[in-house]
Amino acid sequence: MNKQPFAASVSVIVPAMNEAENLPHVFATLPDWIDEVILVDGNSTDDTIAVARRLRPDLRVVVQTRRGKGNALIEGFQAARGDIIVMIDADGSTDGREIRSFVATLINGADFAKGSRYAPGGGSDDLSPIRSLGNKVLTGITNILYRTRYTDLCYGYNAFWARHLDVLDLDCDGFEIETLMNVRAAQAGLVIREVPSHERSRIHGVSNLHAVRDGWRVLRTIWRERTRGTAVTAQAAQVALAK
C-alpha cells in the first residue's frame, strides 16, 4: 500500500561499500512513505548487507558487478521501480529527511531536482577549503560552457523522474557521475531546480574521494561532454535535413 503523501512512487538508491556502522544512522532518517530502498553493495567485506536487511526487511539489494560510485548508481537506477529516483550516500552525509523537499520539487514541475550546499538554506560540515574552491571553479566552468546557473556542481544528493533515464544515458564509473548527470540534464533541456541541502560529515570510516584526482576527472567530463553535445547537435541537424 502506498503510504506516501505524493501521487508518485519513490525509489531511494543507496550505494555502499563497508558502511555497516553508518547505515543505522542513514536509514533512521528515511521517511516511512518511501516505496522502495535499493542498496547497491560494492562487494563489502563487513556486514553492510546483513545490517541493511535487519534495519529494513523490505530492502532490495543489488550486488555491484563493477567498481566505482558511478557504476553503483547506474546499476541501482536500472533496478528501480519507482516513478521518482532519489540518490543518497551511505556515509551519513546526506539527510534522508530532505527527500520530501526533493520529491515536492519534482511534483511541482521540475524534471531534475539538484541538491545544493550553496543555495540559501543549504550548507556543509564537511567541505574543505580546497574542495570548496575546486567545486566553485568547476561549477563556474560548467555554467559558462552550458549556460547553466548551478551553484553546486559536485554534490551527490539529487532526484529525478525515472522516465528521464534514457535521455541521461549514463555511462561512467566514478565520482564524476554527478557532473555527468547535471551536464546531460542541461543538454537535454530538462527543467532543473536546485534544492537547498545541508551536508554533514561522514560518521564512521574514511572517504574514497580524492580532491585532485577526482577534480581532474570531473574537468575531463565537462570538456568531453561539450564535444559530445556538439556532435549530437550536428547529427540531429543532418537527420533533419535528410527528411
Helix and strand layout, with pairings?
Elements: E1 10-16, H1 23-28, E2 36-41, H2 48-55, E3 60-63, H3 69-79, E4 84-87, H4 99-107, E5 112-116, E6 123-124, H5 129-146, E7 158-161, H6 165-168, H7 177-187, E8 192-196, E9 198-199, H8 211-242
Helix pairs in contact: 5-8, 7-8
InterPro entries: Glyco_trans_2-like, Glycosyltransferase_2, Nucleotide-diphossugar_trans
Protein name: Glycosyltransferase 2-like domain-containing protein
Organism: Nonomuraea maheshkhaliensis
Quick tags:
8 helices; 9 strands; 41% helix; 16% strand; 243 residues; Nucleotide-diphossugar_trans
User: What does the average pLDDT come to?
Assistant: 88
CATH architecture, by name, is: Alpha-Beta Complex
Q: Count structural domains.
A: 1
Provide the succession of SSEs: EHEHEHEHEEHEHHEEH
**The CATH homology group name:** Spore Coat Polysaccharide Biosynthesis Protein SpsA, Chain A
CATH class: Alpha Beta
Helix percentage range? 40-55%
Structural class: alpha/beta
Domain Glycosyltransferase 2-like: 11-160
Protein name: Glycosyltransferase 2-like domain-containing protein
Family: Belongs to the glycosyltransferase 2 family.
Describe it:
It holds the Pfam family Glycos_transf_2. This is Glycosyltransferase 2-like domain-containing protein. Belongs to the glycosyltransferase 2 family. Residues 11-160 form the Glycosyltransferase 2-like domain. With 243 residues, this protein is α/β, with parallel strands linked by helices. The chain has one domain (10-242): Spore Coat Polysaccharide Biosynthesis Protein SpsA, Chain A (Alpha-Beta Complex), CATH 3.90.550. Helix content is 41%, strand content 16%. The chain contains eight helices and nine strands. It has helices at residues 23-28, 48-55, 69-79, 99-107, 129-146, 165-168, 177-187, 211-242; strands at 10-16, 36-41, 60-63, 84-87, 112-116, 123-124, 158-161, 192-196, 198-199. The strands form two sheets. Strands 3-2-1-4-7-5-8 form a seven-stranded mixed sheet, with helices on both faces. Helix 7 packs parallel to helix 8 (211-242). The longest helix is centred in the C-terminal third of the chain and has 32 residues, at 211-242. 38% of the residues are buried. Residues 230-243 have low confidence and may be disordered.
